[in-house]
């Protein structure tokens, strides 16, 4: 089977880590199966959709390493939806309803009070042409519902009608259409809800697999029925668990701290974000994966847990650090330059294991170039002054530190922390940092001598 997947965000805000999960799942599935990835903007909400959000989505996906094979905007495909809607109207498969939201809510409350499920009673189907004309003369405009195929002859006598699918994440699934209300496909203002354009686009774009969050499971039975009403074979579905905060709360576009651009601005690597977003809530160990191709190999939709996946941003830092520690100078050279450092391969080799993010290199570059603030305790002043007198001549190598400290040990009897720590604090102003064997040659003799004086 030729694989085509899609990611269909609404351009009504910035992507957050919860959006990244389905985007990545789809991209990795396509990558693993040699398939295509369609980015399809669900921008039929005219009031809330913004071009700047669509641009931001494309930018965030590119940062993650997702490069769509095709980009579509539903707002540019309205004529296709209109034509399909007219065909369904002509076949009696969608019908007009005139209830207001308040009226519908009152009916639902009444049904619950009577112990009945709050399923729409298909009152719109009973309206005569004259009754419809009267309602429209009052200024009411109809919304349009799809008539679910959950009856034999009489739509007012529903019967159990099961829809089955084998979910790639959750296994065999069943939905009884008789337990559901006929879904609204077209709003009273003539705009389309997500369901109808999505199905038409999936058909038109040859989408073979729909990989999305488990919050869509209840909709899937209805959507399969609409696919079949349109004469199309439904795609294969996979409903993965949703990411929540560490406290178990759902993520939303209001979760600014977990927006992709906020994570990027924090200097986090896209593959650290991708690794945690994909592997959280699966049976796979959470570890930093260096490339999308490697992450695609690990993707197993059947390994996704049925429980919510708790995303803890604190887990990103250690994952990110492991990726940074493994980066070669060639991988970061341009980024080091953009940070304003002149660090070479020796500099990066000395400091990378002390960086959680590549941008941390700037702090270490300032330690190299100064101005430094040496820290010398009173009891160490004579020792530090002697160290300056004994400082080896250049050229320096990774052997210089051990040769120098060996000489100082012989002259003073100091050893261990009492020998090394005063030197580190005097040279770097810090009591921690890179291995001085590699860092000292980067700092250089002149800077070192200045700080020991």
Automatic annotation (TrEMBL):
<dbReference type="GO" id="GO:0005524">
    <property type="term" value="F:ATP binding"/>
</dbReference>
<dbReference type="InterPro" id="IPR008925">
    <property type="entry name" value="aa_tRNA-synth_I_cd-bd_sf"/>
</dbReference>
<dbReference type="Pfam" id="PF00749">
    <property type="entry name" value="tRNA-synt_1c"/>
</dbReference>
<dbReference type="GO" id="GO:0004818">
    <property type="term" value="F:glutamate-tRNA ligase activity"/>
</dbReference>
<comment type="similarity">
    <text>Belongs to the class-I aminoacyl-tRNA synthetase family. Glutamate--tRNA ligase type 1 subfamily.</text>
</comment>
<keyword id="KW-0030">Aminoacyl-tRNA synthetase</keyword>
<feature type="domain" description="Glutamyl/glutaminyl-tRNA synthetase class Ib catalytic">
    <location>
        <begin position="3"/>
        <end position="317"/>
    </location>
</feature>
<dbReference type="InterPro" id="IPR014729">
    <property type="entry name" value="Rossmann-like_a/b/a_fold"/>
</dbReference>
<keyword id="KW-0067">ATP-binding</keyword>
<feature type="binding site">
    <location>
        <position position="253"/>
    </location>
    <ligand>
        <name>ATP</name>
    </ligand>
</feature>
<comment type="function">
    <text>Catalyzes the attachment of glutamate to tRNA(Glu) in a two-step reaction: glutamate is first activated by ATP to form Glu-AMP and then transferred to the acceptor end of tRNA(Glu).</text>
</comment>
<protein>
    <recommendedName>
        <fullName>Glutamate--tRNA ligase</fullName>
        <ecNumber>6.1.1.17</ecNumber>
    </recommendedName>
</protein>
<keyword id="KW-0547">Nucleotide-binding</keyword>
<dbReference type="InterPro" id="IPR033910">
    <property type="entry name" value="GluRS_core"/>
</dbReference>
<dbReference type="InterPro" id="IPR004527">
    <property type="entry name" value="Glu-tRNA-ligase_bac/mito"/>
</dbReference>
<dbReference type="InterPro" id="IPR049940">
    <property type="entry name" value="GluQ/Sye"/>
</dbReference>
<feature type="domain" description="Aminoacyl-tRNA synthetase class I anticodon-binding">
    <location>
        <begin position="382"/>
        <end position="452"/>
    </location>
</feature>
<dbReference type="InterPro" id="IPR020058">
    <property type="entry name" value="Glu/Gln-tRNA-synth_Ib_cat-dom"/>
</dbReference>
<dbReference type="Pfam" id="PF19269">
    <property type="entry name" value="Anticodon_2"/>
</dbReference>
<dbReference type="InterPro" id="IPR020751">
    <property type="entry name" value="aa-tRNA-synth_I_codon-bd_sub2"/>
</dbReference>
<keyword id="KW-0648">Protein biosynthesis</keyword>
<comment type="subunit">
    <text>Monomer.</text>
</comment>
<keyword id="KW-0436">Ligase</keyword>
<dbReference type="GO" id="GO:0005737">
    <property type="term" value="C:cytoplasm"/>
</dbReference>
<dbReference type="InterPro" id="IPR000924">
    <property type="entry name" value="Glu/Gln-tRNA-synth"/>
</dbReference>
<feature type="short sequence motif" description="'HIGH' region">
    <location>
        <begin position="9"/>
        <end position="19"/>
    </location>
</feature>
<dbReference type="GO" id="GO:0008270">
    <property type="term" value="F:zinc ion binding"/>
</dbReference>
<dbReference type="GO" id="GO:0000049">
    <property type="term" value="F:tRNA binding"/>
</dbReference>
<dbReference type="InterPro" id="IPR001412">
    <property type="entry name" value="aa-tRNA-synth_I_CS"/>
</dbReference>
<dbReference type="InterPro" id="IPR045462">
    <property type="entry name" value="aa-tRNA-synth_I_cd-bd"/>
</dbReference>
<feature type="short sequence motif" description="'KMSKS' region">
    <location>
        <begin position="250"/>
        <end position="254"/>
    </location>
</feature>
<keyword id="KW-0963">Cytoplasm</keyword>
<dbReference type="GO" id="GO:0006424">
    <property type="term" value="P:glutamyl-tRNA aminoacylation"/>
</dbReference>
